[in-house]
TrEMBL record:
Taxonomic lineage from the root: Bacteria, Bacillati, Actinomycetota, Actinomycetes, Micrococcales
tRNA processing keyword on record: no
Family matches, as Pfam families: HupE_UreJ_2
Residue spans crossing the bilayer: 195-219, 226-249, 255-275, 310-334, 340-363, 375-393
Protein name per its UniProtKB record: HupE/UreJ protein
Signal sequence annotation: 1-20
Alphabetic keyword roster: Membrane, Signal, Transmembrane, Transmembrane helix
Entry annotated with the keyword Protein transport: no
Amino acid sequence: MRIRHTVALAGLLAVVSSPAGGLAASAHDATSDVYAQVQAAAPGSADVSVVLDLEYDLLMKSAWLRAEAYEATGRAAQLAELDEHEAAVDGYVTDRFAVTSDGDPCTPTLAAADVVERGGRAYASLAYAYACAGAPDGVHEVSSALFPDAESFVHSTETIVEYALDGEEGSAVLTASSPTLTTGEHRLLKQLAEFFVLGGEHLLFGLDHVLFLLALLVGARRLRDVVWTATAFAVAHSITFLLAALGVVEVPAIVVEPVIAASIAVVAGVDLVLLARDGAALPSGVRDALAWRGTVRDERTAWDRWRLPLVFVFGLVHGVGFAGALGIDAAWSWSLLWSLLAFNVGIEAVQLGIVAVVFPLLVLLRARAPRTARWALGAGCAVIAVVALWWLLERTALA
């Protein structure tokens, strides 16, 4: 029984922090978000204006262009490739993003193309004019099937729509299972549910945030520690997430992303030091190397003193990271605020779920096999620290 518990937890840490999953790409590469701003072209007109922001390299790959197109770096080179392959890009997008008016397809025309930055990534920004034959007071539908799983480049693509159409304003998340937005629906509850799920997915698939949370749990011994630590992290990232998502606070991704990586490395490093407090679990040389400041017990006392302030500060940075991952760039509205709150609640729900699953396993493992637990957790924390340091190097080099 002890062996099964140990293997299960060691496997959890190894899989979550696997270099194969985390070092080959950034912490958010498995999925992609498309951003769409949809609005009436003019008062009293059925025509629609759409601005689509799509990851540049993913768009070029999905349009089956040569390597020079999707490997281009720098805005000037990417703009040149976008201009050269305008027909292929336009064909790919308009085959998968559609607008109808009263059931009749609207005709798209590519009006402008640009390359912009979102969260440190290059995005192709495509402005379309959709000519619609329906009545000005009719019903519009917006559908997206961009970057489907079948193309095998990414999975679970979501199109985040901000719209002002047919006298309505709001947000929507279009997915493979729910690809269409229809105006005239009473969709506030659906909108909140969409952003709740989106928030949960952003935490679950944001490997850096998950590793940070796991490292915090390894360093917590008592339920009280977990409650206070999780609360400090939640409050901090909620504050900066809302401020950053609403445009009140702006911090460049080249600053935020390296600090997030550093926060993971710091917490994992502290965990390794604290695991050394039970000296019999580690070789004497490793134990002596880790305990560089007095006794290891002194290290735990110091960490207990600084844990909450440090977690709060790191949480502030992670909150800006959540906002950057969401990537909404829309004017203030109550609808936007409700969407952001639902997104944040989704983050908290998944965070609570991870805590509820992992912490009892840690308690059980420490109680049943304390010596083996220290080795397993030490190995997991070491892998987390190495992955975080690699991200720090990678993100600093790319800055």
